[in-house]
Amino acid sequence: MSAALARTFAAAGHSVALAARRPEKLAALCAETGAIAQACDAADAGQVDAFFDRVAAELVDLKVSVLVAAPAGSARAAKQVTSTVPIVFMGEPDPVGTGLVASLARPGGNVTGLADAHADLFPKRLQLLKEITAPGARVGVLWNPSNPSTAPQLKSAQIAGRALGLTLVPADVKGPGRSDVDQAFAMIGDARLGSLLVIPDPTLGNHRTRIAELSIKHRLPTSGTHRGWAEGGLLMSYGSDFIDMFRRGATIVDKILKGTKPADLPVEQPTKFEFVINLATARALGLTMPASLLARADQVLRSHPRLGVSPSQYRAIRPAPPGRERDACRG
């Protein structure tokens, strides 16, 4: 559950059970909201799936009213544990294909939420990458094959790539550790790619900064799927506005708390999207961003020199047009 959702329901007098992989952030949220006093269990299980499985069972044992499942993949663990407690997922890329719901219009069972339309967005993401990729250069796709939701996304990306005349080269991250990411980039380096697309996954999200560091090291313009990737140091991102998504998620949870059954609430699709560019990363890559791309960006970021590159690479960044720039360090 996001901090915004937790604050919303605590203020309304509902008890909220939380779990996370970052103990320091969870402890601060528990202290801030007071009403949040249950299951602040933030132990790091190492394996993301094992963490979700354990936490889902613990929260169900607490007899919570609703389980809010985020990031993508966590709802599967919740559904395996309970068929009665309502589950609201956030940002699942293929809730029908992974068996979370029977259909978007009629989810059935105890699960509903907000899907993330990755399959529909890959043509746009790849088109943006194509504009800064040398003609004829191949595009790498960094993905986690152990996550069932990522294979359909890879297929969608490959279909979109062929339509754009791009050759896509999958780069598998074969485990949850930093060394697994490093090994994938060793293959990427040998493949001599022109740019890189990251398929979203909780495991890769845990290594967002390392992926940004290695992308810069290999001089690879890299695109993520939501603004958090650009804030973490990738060159750019295009995807759903997750702040808007979680606000809409709060509305779904509120309806369930007032008596509506999840089976009667259609799965919603994102309606707001954002294109974010990190100019500091562009400078670190030695890349001049086309004016046409900058003009289309919803926001242009200046990032703190927190990646493994020289501070001089982050200096003297030309200010973005008014209203389009923010400091990524402030989140």
Secondary structure topology:
Layout (H helix, E strand, L loop, with lengths): L2 H9 L5 E3 L3 H11 L4 E4 L6 H14 L5 E3 L4 H8 L5 E6 L18 E5 L2 H13 L8 E5 L6 H14 L4 E5 L5 H14 L3 E4 L3 H5 L1 H10 L4 E3 L2 H5 L4 E5 L1 H16 L15 E6 H7 L5 H6 L2 E4 L22 E3 L4
Parallel strand pairs: 1-2, 3-4, 4-5, 6-7, 6-8, 8-9, 9-10, 11-12, 12-13
Antiparallel strand pairs: 10-11
- Write out the strand line-up for the largest beta sheet, numbering strands in chain order: 7-6-8-9-10-11-12-13
Q: Looking at CATH, which topology of the largest domain would you report?
A: Rossmann fold
Name the overall outline: globular
In the CATH hierarchy, the architecture of the largest domain is: 3-Layer(aba) Sandwich
CATH superfamily of the largest domain: Response regulator
How many individual β-strands? 13
Radius of gyration: 20 Å
Query: How far apart are the termini?
Result: 18 Å
Whole-number average pLDDT?
80
Biggest beta-sheet profile: 8 strands, mixed
Give the CATH class of the largest domain: Alpha Beta
Low-confidence stretches: 18-27, 32-46, 308-331
What's the SSE pattern? HEHEHEHEEHEHEHEHHEHEHEHHEE
